[in-house]
Structure formats: C-alpha cells, structure tokens
Design a protein that fits this description.
- The protein contains 9 helices and 17 strands.
- The N terminus is likely disordered.
- Helices cover 26% and strands 20% of the residues.
- The protein is of the alpha/beta class and 465 residues long.
- The strands form 3 sheets. It has a 7-stranded parallel beta sheet. The protein has a 5-stranded antiparallel beta sheet with strand order 1-9-12-15-14, with no helix packed on it. It has a 5-stranded antiparallel beta sheet with strand order 10-11-16-13-17, with no helix packed on it.
Length: 465
C-alpha cells in the first residue's frame, strides 16, 4: 500500500528463458514457449476481515470485472497471521478460502501473485501480517500514529521486530515453513503465477544512519539472505512458479536498492511505485522529475542482475486532482518502458484507493488504466503502442517458431475491430483474441474501437464483441 514517510526520515506458470530486452537492458518476462508476457491488473484484498471471516470481502465479481476490463493479473494479499494463528497450526479454512479465490481467478483467466502482505509488521501493532507470536520487541516502546500509519514503521518496537524476524533462527524457520505450506498447497493451481515473498519490507535504522543508508544496508545484509533462504524453502516443493522480491519502500524516493544476488532461476524484481508528495495530498508536478528519478533508480538493479520487473503496487489516493490525468499518462508510459507489467492499488468498490465506486464505475482517471495490450507475443516485439486519443492499439512483431500471440481487449468499453497484416490469421471472440503467424513474418496487429471503424477496412478486419 502507499505511504507517507515519517517526518525527519525523508521528505518524500512461466519459464525463465530470456528474450531480447528493451532499451533499458531489462529482460522481459517469458513463458515456456518463449513468448513475451505482459501482466496488467490490480491488487485484490480483504484487510477488514480475519479469522472465520477472512477473505469474505473478495467475491467472484472482482475477477469477472477484472476480465471485462481486459486485465489478466491480480496480486492477492494473504496474511501469515490468518494462515498460522498459533505457532505450528495452519488454518485449513483459510487455505480453502484462498483456493476458492484462485478458482474464481482461473475461471476468468486471471493469473495470481500470492503476496505475503504485512503493514507495520502485524497485529501486535494493530495491523496485519506477521503473527503476534512471531513478534519480538525486547520491550521497546510503540506509539500508534492513527493519522499517519506509515510513520509507525519508525517506532522502536516495530523496527526491532523486523530485526528479530531477519536474525532469529526459529523465526527464520517459521517463515520458511509458512511459505512451504503455501507453495505445496497452491504451486500446481493453474491460476498461480508466483509468490511475493514479503510486502514492503522494512528494518531497523541504526543510530546516525539516514534512511537511504539504512535501506541499502537492510536490503544487502538482511533482505538478500532472507530472500535466498525463502527461495530454497519454496523450491523444495515448487520448482515452477516465479518468486517476486521487493526492495524497501525507500525506492519510491529514487534510492537505488542495495539488494544483492538472488540465487534462483525464476526471480522477478517487484518494486512499488509511489511518490511521497502525492501520498501526502499534493497534485502531480511534472517539473519535479519524480517519475524520471524513480525510473533511473529502479532500473539499475534488474538490468545488472538480468531480472524482469513487475511493479506490485501503484496509483495515488487523490486521483481527481487537476494534474492527475497527466500523471496517469506519464506513469503508464514509464511503466511500459521497463516493466513486464503492473498491479494497481486496489480493485475494490467504494472510496479511498478503490478503482471503482459502489456502482462499479471507475474512479476519476483510473479508467485510463483500461487499454488493449498483448498478454503474450509469440516472437520479437518491435513496437507496442496505444493512442488514448483515437483509442487505436497497434502491435508490430516478428513471429517466432512456437505459440500464438494473444491480444486482450476491454469488452466493457464496447466492440473492437481487429486486423492483422503480414501472413497472419486473427481468431477469437470477446476480449480474447489470438493471432497465429508464419514463422519469420513481420506482423502488425491493429485494434480499433468499432465506433471508429470505417467501412473501407471491413473486408480485412474482424470485429469482436
């Protein structure tokens, strides 16, 4: 979730065959046929309910509506405190509810990232995540900050709890076992894409350290070993799905990560994309250069370690401010330059961060995330563009030897006409279009809203519902 940094800290199933990277030097996510993958979707959560009511706020409608708007990806928040309420006791009811959600996702063709979510460590501090029985504070103080919850991360008790999680052998083993339980139960579920090992990890700031220095130290000396331990634990039961690793939230301030090498063959770098000023209520200011500084900082690590990037959370709270339309345009252009996809925060029906209101209509500017795109391209991508003014989507690629290209169209926006030029055939109906092409052919696929489609192209195009 988004945040505002505490005052004084900083003022604001797939396979891993590499494909040619874009100009950022970052490889794209691919599947076992070598197709270039793009994930677009939203976080799906139930933070309000726990215990016997856990996950009950998530319904089949969430996934039906995601698909109707063309999305193929959901980052599902799960909580260790619900999974293991007592040490060594794993809730079979909670596992069944996770499976029910995954079954809905499968029904609508949504790929799911299971996110081990924590906010301010967990229930010992009035939030969700790491169980109370795994929280050790050494008696250090904690003062709640109800008007600025993120500042609670800087309370001494919370910081010490992270240190114990990273350093205590028994807590390390408990965290590893938790992930083994999840991966063993869901690793073969068709909807599961991978595992986000911990949400927005934080740590203890040493005396005399500023936040950027502390963040790089925590990432290098605590998060990197933790991710490697968890990777080994998960791989003992699941060799197939992707592992998603996050830096600390300091990356949002343009601070390059200190993460080291993750010794795993299927790892995705999964930073979040939030600006402190906007989270504090400010409008987007293009002249401040935040997106440019974020992109420069966040791309260095995955380019060096040859990891695909999927942004796990993004989207401002006050999205109706005058410059927010410009923000969504600039943000999506940036994300498209270096990521293999993203999950907005959050797919729910109401106010606050919700993508939709109570009636299912998009909140102001969040409808800008709904565009055609190619979830899978069987070949080498040359260009992939969407013109928001005309509504026209165009993909150009050279076809590979295996697989078909998939195009996702948001059917909630109406009918589309699709054409493919260059030894290619278009098939499909609804929002799911496939293109099969001769190996080596240069193919251009164009999707146009039916209301803009002229009669002259009708013989060469295929209008889809």
């Amino acid at each position: 979730m988004s945040f505002v940094l505490a005052a004084g800290a900083l003022a604001p199933a797939a396979d891993a065959h590499p494909v040619p990277s874009d100009r950022s030097g970052i490889p794209r996510l691919t599947d076992d046929a070598g197709r270039t993958l793009t994930l677009r979707g939203w976080n799906v959560e139930d933070k309000a309910n726990r215990g016997d009511r856990a996950l009950t706020a998530i319904t089949e409608k969430h996934f039906r509506d995601l698909r109707a708007n063309g999305f193929d990806f959901a980052r599902l928040l799960i909580f260790w405190d619900d999974l293991e309420p007592r040490r060594g006791h794993y809730s079979t009811a909670y596992l069944r509810r996770i499976e029910r959600v995954l079954d809905w996702a499968r029904k609508y063709g949504i790929q799911v990232l299971l996110d081990a979510h924590q906010d301010v460590f967990g229930p010992a501090f009035g939030h969700r995540g790491i169980p109370a029985w795994a929280t050790r504070t050494d008696g250090l103080p904690f003062t709640p900050h109800p008007d600025d919850w993120f500042s609670e991360y800087f309370e001494p008790a919370v910081q010490r709890a992270f240190t114990h999680l990273y350093e205590d052998p028994d807590l390390r083993r408990a965290q590893e076992r938790m992930w083994q339980v999840v991966a063993e139960r869901f690793g073969r579920h068709p909807a599961v894409l991978g595992y986000d090992l911990i949400n927005e990890p934080m740590g203890e700031i040493a005396e005399g350290e500023d936040l950027p220095t502390a963040a790089r130290r925590i990432e290098a000396r605590q998060l990197t070993p933790m991710y490697n331990r968890l990777a080994r634990a998960i791989r003992s039961v699941d060799r197939a799905n992707w592992l998603f690793v996050e830096p600390t939230p300091a990356v949002g301030e343009g601070v390059p990560t200190g993460l080291g090498t993750i010794a795993d063959h299927r790892t995705v770098y999964a930073p979040h994309f939030y600006d402190t000023a906007m989270e504090a209520g400010a409008d987007y200011d293009p002249s401040a250069g935040w997106i440019e500084s974020y992109e420069a900082a966040v791309t260095a690590y995955p380019a060096r370690h040859r990891l695909p990037v999927v942004v796990g959370e993004w989207g401002p709270l006050n999205n109706a401010l005058p410059m927010m339309g410009r923000f969504y345009r600039d943000a999506m252009a940036s994300l498209n330059r270096y990521t293999s996809g993203w999950a907005g925060y959050v797919w729910c029906y109401g106010g606050g961060y919700c993508a939709l209101d109570e009636n299912g209509a998009f909140a102001v500017n969040k409808e800008r995330t709904v565009t055609p795109y190619a979830p899978a391209v069987a070949g080498t991508v040359h260009s992939d563009t969407y013109d928001a003014t005309t509504g026209v989507y165009r993909l150009t690629y050279t076809a590979g030897r295996r697989g078909v290209t998939e195009i996702s169209l948001p059917t909630a926006a109406g009918r589309w006409c699709v054409s493919a030029h260059g030894s290619a055939e278009v098939r499909g109906s609804g929002g799911a279009i496939t293109v099969r092409a001769r190996a080596g052919a240069r193919v251009t696929v164009t999707a146009t809203p039916a209301r803009r489609h002229g009669r002259a192209d009708a013989t060469r195009s295929r209008c889809q519902l």
